[in-house]
Design a protein that fits this description.
It is built from eight helices and six strands. The chain is α/β, with parallel strands linked by helices. It comes from Corynebacterium lehmanniae.
């Protein structure tokens, strides 16, 4: 069975969800690599605990990464190591986004952009898993509306998802498992992927150095990124 780790990244005008798809062996390999990297960082910096890999916090010197505040080069180096770990594990990375303003303008009662991006991500992953003849367990960071998401996803295993290309999510196994991201290296990897992929696509007003860093980190993911799209309703 495949495991799909998902997380989201957004600003006012756009919302993205990324999924990192791995088989059991790949998942264990990625977790091991990130555990080793986290432990090395803990020892080197004299931290009490291994850090949580979180894109926004790492790049802004927050939370577990406050000791790196202002040390842009060090943050980029760590970020790149995580991207290499994702790529070298054999993961498949999916990115789906939605233009929030257009979504709200098109529909009188639109679904939440999170649900829309999540649904589109699951559709793409479902297509691949069906071809492989495998089921997929979905693991995500905890969110306030998680019960609503599970109810919707369960419905889509019985009837098709909305839209003219709707499909039944036959390969999605059971409810989404919502976990504390601090305890899931897989969810952390999805967070790191979605944050930098969104920044690369959307942060056109960022400084030249920030844009260069985003390009470098996305390049580090390489062909692990098998699908990326922003829906313009």
């Amino acid at each position: 069975m495949f495991r799909l780790f998902i997380d989201e990244s957004y600003q006012h005008d756009h919302y993205y969800v990324a999924g990192v798809l791995l088989d059991e062996e790949q998942s264990e390999a990625l977790e091991s690599r990130l555990d080793e990297l986290g432990e090395n960082l803990r020892i080197r910096n004299g931290w009490e605990t291994s850090p949580e890999f979180h894109g926004h916090a790492l790049m802004n010197g927050l939370d577990d990464w406050k000791d790196l505040h202002g040390k842009f080069g060090a943050s980029i180096s760590i970020y790149q190591k995580v991207m290499h770990a994702v790529r070298n594990s054999g993961a498949r990375v999916y990115l789906e986004g939605v233009d929030v303003a257009r979504l709200n303008a098109r529909y009188k009662y639109p679904d939440s952009p999170h649900e829309v991006a999540l649904r589109h991500t699951l559709e793409r992953v479902n297509e691949y898993c069906v071809l492989q003849g495998e089921k997929c367990k979905v693991i995500a960071d905890m969110v306030p509306q998680q019960e609503d998401f599970n109810e919707a996803i369960q419905g889509f295993t019985r009837v098709a998802t909305p839209g003219f290309l709707g499909q039944k999510l036959h390969a999605i196994d059971g409810d989404i498992e919502f976990v504390d991201s601090r305890h899931s290296r897989g969810v952390q990897s999805a967070d790191m992927c979605v944050y930098i992929l969104r920044r690369h696509r959307e942060e056109t007003g960022a400084s030249a150095s920030a844009q260069k860093a985003a390009r470098r980190l996305v390049k580090s993911l390489g062909d692990a990124v098998v699908h990326q799209r922003k829906w313009l309703p």
